[in-house]
What does this fold into?
Amino acid sequence: MSQFFEIHPDNPQLRLIHRAVEIIRKGGVIAYPTDSSYALACQLDDKQALDKIKRIRQLDDKHNFTLVCKDLTQVSMFTKISNDAHRLIKALTPGPFTFILEATREVPKRLQHPKKKTIGIRIPDHEVTKLLVQELGEALLSSSLVLPGESDAMTDPYDIKERLENEIDLIIDAGIINHEITTMIEFSAQGAEIIRQGKGLAPMLT
It folds into this structure.
């Protein structure tokens, strides 16, 4: 049976954030809010928790997970980031973007793209997410909460509770969040390219 925390989306209660961090550190899988959808998350190096997310979403080994970071300093731990990439990410974050960059050795191989050796990075613009990652002190391994056979992420925490309360350890209720895909930007030797247009706008790349 999962725990259910009602956390204010603009002024998150720190005591509840601390309890959420404790659950993550003990190997828990949580449903939490971002600026584009609800998502599932766990500790970066927790293989058991990762396997649970894969089982819930029925994902294969080819699925690309995302690391949710608190800032660019954290991003540079997990990715090889050029000066141009640094400037662009700084200009667009926090916001609804996923950046695809070459992974460093800090990223477990099972999370990297099998051929490109890349990883997706996010710095979402949501107060709960920002405080969660800040208090955890490390990046969160994350995946949008899209259940098998569905195309959109779940929007209502009470629906999440109904569907997943026996599957995950915590549901954070920060109100209804309508699913809008993030804009995906990939960095390569040729520069930055929008490979999926979503909620985030990057006029400097169009």
Observations:
- Strands lie at 3-6, 30-33, 38-43, 66-68, 97-102, 118-122, 140-144, 170-173, 183-188, 191-196.
- DSSP finds six helices and ten strands in the chain.
